[in-house]
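Repro:
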Amino acid sequence: MRTALTLLAALLAGGAAAVEAPPELPPAAIVARILQASPAVRAADSQVAVEAANRSRLEAGPYEWNVRLGAQRRRVNSGGGPDERLQETSAGLERTFRLPGKAALDAELGAKGVELAETARGDVLHEAARGLLKHWFAWLRESATAGQWAEQAALLEQYSQGVKRRRQLGDAARLEALQAEAAAAQAEAQLAQARSRQRTAAEELHRRYPGLPLPVSPLLPDPPLLAGDETHWVAAIRDHSHELALARGEAQRATMAAGRSGRDLLPDPTLGLHVARERSGEENVVGLSLSIPLPGEARRAQSAAALAQADAASSREAAARQKVEGEAATLYQAASAARGSWEASRRAGRQLQEAAALTARAYQLGEGSLNELLTARRLANEAGLAARLAQLEALELRCRLLLDAHRLWPLDDHGDH
């Protein structure tokens, strides 16, 4: 298992696994430190230690030395005379031994258990990274929404002040002033709500991931094109899937356990050494004993059950493969479509922004109404917000694709099968 120190060193050195470094995400070294400190990952570390101890138990075997001690008093009728009283003692040492081949299989089962625990730890770490990514983009969305409404509120406040000045000069009706003030107040209310949601999202990040820094002005680049087709990404995610690796490892362990159970159809013998002191020391006995259980229906049933469990585990592996590949294909399609949606939203936003600017210019020249200006500004704001959210959706899906393919953060190497 990779330790946290090894992981952080690899991150700081810019390992080959970190082929991507999206600027909209927090630094990889900080992410690694925070995720390694999460309770779920620490619990997975402890489970690896549990399996390591279980491996030692399997290697040692289930049998131990047994010591037998005995003492007895014998009374012998000598025929008419007084009875003869004799002191007798006995001692024995015995142990059951695994037949050849069983110890090696037990050691393999123990090693497979440790391997599965390490893979499960990688899965926990991966899920923790997914959670961080989800909450990080939730905060980015609320920040983008607050930024969009801040721009809208500032523009509408300018319009409101302009209408007030025009009304003071007798060039605007009282109704226009009321409309402008109402629009500015609505924008301020939307801005207050957006900032409240932004603070809530930031607080959740701080609670779930202590020490994660939040930038004042997050950098949101244009979503780049995905390199590679669906087949490429499905294969990359499948080959790095902890879920599939766990199912595969469970199937392998079940097959090994079935083989081990088959070996138990031939029971292990118990060898013993015993000594005895009889007739108050007149007779001394030294002997060996050998006992072998006679196998019955229970052993055969246990072996049959182990074989059935191996078949079930193999079927679960096939189901996990289908699930992982299906989810990977869906994620790729969503990421590809999200970029196209963002491009369309950006074009619409730019056009409506230009229309709003032209409407504002026309209003300043007295060629349009305030209602037309406010409507154009509302549509431009909605389009601008939609474009920002579409941009974040495309960025998040791309990051999720990279994360599942182990190309975002070099969290561990257990998914590389």
